[in-house]
Sequence to fold (384 residues):
Amino acid sequence: MVDFLGDSVWAVVDSSTCNILYNAVRRYEEIISNQRLSKLKKKQSKHIVAAPDDDDRYLGQIDQVQISLNEICDDTSYPAFQADESYSLNIAIEESTITARTVWGVLRGLETFSQLLYTGEDGSSTRVNATKIRDFPRFPVRGLLLDTSRHFIHLAQIYQLLDAMAYNKLNVFHWHIVDDQSFPYVSMKFPELRHAIGVFCFAELGAYNSVEFVYAPDDIKAVIEYARQRGVRVIPEFDTPGHTRSWGVSHPELLTPCDDIEEGSFGPMDPTKDSTYSFIKELFSELRALFIDPFIHLGGDEVDFDCWELDASISSFMTRENIRNYSGLEGYYIQKVIDIADELNFNSIVWEEVFNNGVKLPNETIVHVWRDWEGNYWNDTMRS
Fold:
């Protein structure tokens, strides 16, 4: 073991620094300082307390950890799919180093180092075991989904979540930002999407509150930047053609009327109208300018075909287009939306139902498998 002296111990070598690295160093200095000792013992921490003479594990003290970054640190870069997050960590009396090819690897190394520290038996010294670590991720995508439609989550809590993701070396924030329950995204092209009308109940909302419980473009930019500083990608999900009742608050023409089931109700988006796809293209072009990551999640799960089956105009459309079943109609819709995303230079992600229903997806499309709690969904998807 060695004693670690925790104030301003980092030294960056082999590369010019950048704000991502500079901010990370300052952030981990604070993390280490906060976790070292309770406030009661912080005054004592300024004094070195030697290890017991009879403890042959004690090697000495380190007062510096060198950060060796092999590539130029670029403040304009963002974490990306299959980015190199590997690093080496060497803790020794002679020299202690964190070495990585990219700044994303350095972030992971700093996190590991911060978690190796512990308080000595004397109650005041901070110690770390001499060690050598060569670490790299097994999976290039290590994500967490947050649903901000069913329950609005304030930015402060989203930042806490991103911190927790960094602590666990997760690297994809899957932002399920809208759904049936609410539409908290503030669109510049369609600002009416977030407006609430009437009482606050399930199907009568754009957002739960169109002023307080929404995410404006500046809010989203702030989340993307906060995530970037921690090596986390932000991938938005705008789930269609189902899960879109909140869209219909201001744009009922997008949805399929479902009066035969319940008067005044609506089903999934109407896949027969050109205006549906024009609307989606305008909205997605706005998203393309706002979200940095090349991927967008298009949803496609849990599409209820009942309203489509009862709509005479949809039946006529299917006859004209030689679409034989409603899975085929869903495929028709999804293909057009994927084409829109592709035209806007988005890479598409879809839920597994789209794939299982036989939609012919481009090779670049990622199929997101999620159902496995009952039946043989996993096996069926893998066979498909």
Summary: The radius of gyration is 26 Å. The domain at 2-135 is CATH 3.30.379.10 (Chitobiase; domain 2).
